[in-house]
Sequence to fold (326 residues):
Amino acid sequence: MFITGPRIVESVIGEKVSMEELGGSKVHATVSGVCDFRCRDEKECFDSIKKLLSFLPDNYTEEPPIFDTGDDPERLDNELDSVIPADSYKPYDMKEVIERLIDKGDFFEVKKEFAPEIIVGFSRLDNRTVGIVANQPKVRAGALTVDSSDKQARFIRFCDCFNIPLLLLVDTPAYMPGIRQEHAGIIRHGAKVLFALCEAVVPRVAVILRKAYGGGSLGMGVVPGFGTDYIFIWPSAERGVLGAEQAVALYYKDQAERMDDGKGFLKKKIQEYRETMGNPIFEASSNLEIELIEPQQTRRSLINVFRSLRGKRVFRQPKHHGNIPL
Fold:
């Protein structure tokens, strides 16, 4: 699939490329993001289409279908208590968390091969469809990028179109820094996500598992004003404009360089930051919109909150349309 074929490409700009290299399924699934699903054969393709449709309503005026998955809504999972590594820089697989939270571990991922630093897909909680948006610490530490922003914004708007509640699982050090991302327009692409979050009216619940720094809190909708209905936070969570090391280095590096024991001074300041500003108990006690929970209780807490949000209705002043930052 392409706009201009290999022969024209070669004749116009002298670039030799095969049809597969120019517009094959792998290219569109991993590089361009045009492809949402890539299947091995026709049978897998049709099976995937059937599964996708099982999560969706017949049209935008209806609610998604309800399936009895047989999973206990009161189920606790003690394994979640140890899924987050003690070292905040050590990665882990967010998909393991997703599979433990949802009904029967049945997760249908969308754009699996594109921008894997963010995970999006469909599942069920309490027998009902839910759209999941989650950072993936295994890839780029879960940082938000140009490609992941496009992927995330599109999925959020899709769920909002078809009355599918959203679950946000947050562990991100913020937006990916660097010349490549800035020159690719991370500000513009990131703004698409903020627009999608602000416009979405479906029930939305977030869980901060570990990191939610700076613009990452914006991009994952866990700051006031973005319309997230409820925010849970795990004891392993760290929030702030910057991480502890980065914040201390910004404010105290010059002072430490003038001291005999500068490293010891910085280490002490980092520990103070983690015990105060970076402490999830401090966050929960100072922000009434956030509730601290044990990881093992997450599934049960999510189901109870989504049940309470089923009658959610948002009425807005009529207007032509918003101006999404394309």
Notes: The chain has a mean pLDDT of 91. The longest helix spans residues 146-161. The chain is about 40% helix and 15% strand.
